[in-house]
Design a protein that fits this description.
With 264 residues, the chain is an alpha/beta fold. The protein folds into 2 domains: 57 residues, no CATH class; 193 residues, Rossmann fold. Helix content is 27%, strand content 25%. It has 8 helices and 12 strands. The strands form 2 sheets. An 8-stranded mixed β-sheet has the order 5-11-12-10-9-6-7-8. A 4-stranded antiparallel β-sheet has the order 2-1-3-4, with no helix packed on it. The radius of gyration is 19 Å and the shape is globular. The chain starts with a strand and ends with a strand.
């Protein structure tokens, strides 16, 4: 669950609080929803459709873990190695024939960027994280430093194998990489989903968007470049950050978009 302060900053309740939270108007200062989020000296809880004024003592912010700058740089260097690039480029001809080639372009989310996104949504050890189309797995490794369980899924065997190798290299026992097609994947109880959608086809984006409707209310979806707003997901925050492409000397700036699964 997200809430907004008077400066329009977004905060979160911890996942265990999200699951247990009941939007009981007897807890509210006022029994009617308010139209805006700029009310002075208040904090506002949202289910993605309505905003309610709540006493501050009812709200708890997540305790965020810190990742030292040196660790971020070490992980990023590992994923920008020639070995990582070769893993990404080792796509067999059958896969290229059956998939849109643009969806298999190699780029990677920067370590600082995914860390910023996870900080914004208040990722904590109570959370589980899933990267759909994880590639070689950099966001999964960063998330594993903050959440209880981090998983990545991809259809390219060499990428999944590299992700598994990276998890071993950095000793991340709470990390899992799966060779799977999102069309056949059951999401289960996931708290935070990441989708680097920049090169995905429109058809695949729509497939993933429909799949995300399976998430529990209050779950967070972070996407790159494209909004996944729908009847099930409401867009609550955006920020810009660099995204690196293999073979390019300069990263390009892309939008990170943060959504929340609406209350049913």
């Amino acid at each position: 669950m997200l809430y907004f302060d008077k400066d329009h900053r977004i905060h979160t309740l911890e996942s265990r609080e999200m699951v247990q939270w009941k939007l009981d108007l007897s807890n509210a200062d006022y029994s009617q929803a308010v139209a805006g989020i700029g009310v002075e000296r208040t904090q506002i809880l949202s289910d993605g459709e309505s905003f309610f004024l709540l006493p501050k003592e009812s709200l708890k912010t997540s305790k965020l873990s810190e990742i030292p700058q040196a660790e971020l740089e070490e992980i990023q260097s590992f994923f920008f190695s020639q070995e990582a690039v070769q893993a990404a480029l080792s796509v067999n001809s059958d896969l290229l024939k059956s998939q849109d080639k643009g969806s298999l372009t190699y780029g990677t989310t920067g370590a600082k960027s995914i860390y910023e996104a996870l900080r914004r949504v208040g990722a904590s050890t109570d959370d589980s994280f899933l990267d759909i189309g994880c590639g070689c797995g950099l966001p999964v490794l960063i998330a594993s430093k903050l959440v209880g369980q981090a998983r990545g899924v991809d259809i390219v065997p060499s990428m999944v194998e590299f992700g598994q190798k990276a998890a071993t290299r950095f000793g991340r026992e709470n990390t899992e990489f799966l060779l799977a097609n999102i069309r056949h994947l059951e999401l289960g109880r996931v708290d935070i989903v990441y989708v680097a959608a920049t090169t995905l086809t429109e058809e695949l984006r729509e497939t993933i968007k429909e799949k995300l409707s399976q998430l529990r209310p209050g779950a967070v979806v972070i996407t790159l470049t494209y909004s996944f707003q729908s009847d099930a997901l409401v867009l609550v925050d955006t920020f810009k950050s660099p995204f690196a492409w293999w073979g390019s000397s300069e990263p390009s700036v892309h939008d990170f978009l943060i959504h929340i699964r609406r209350a049913s």
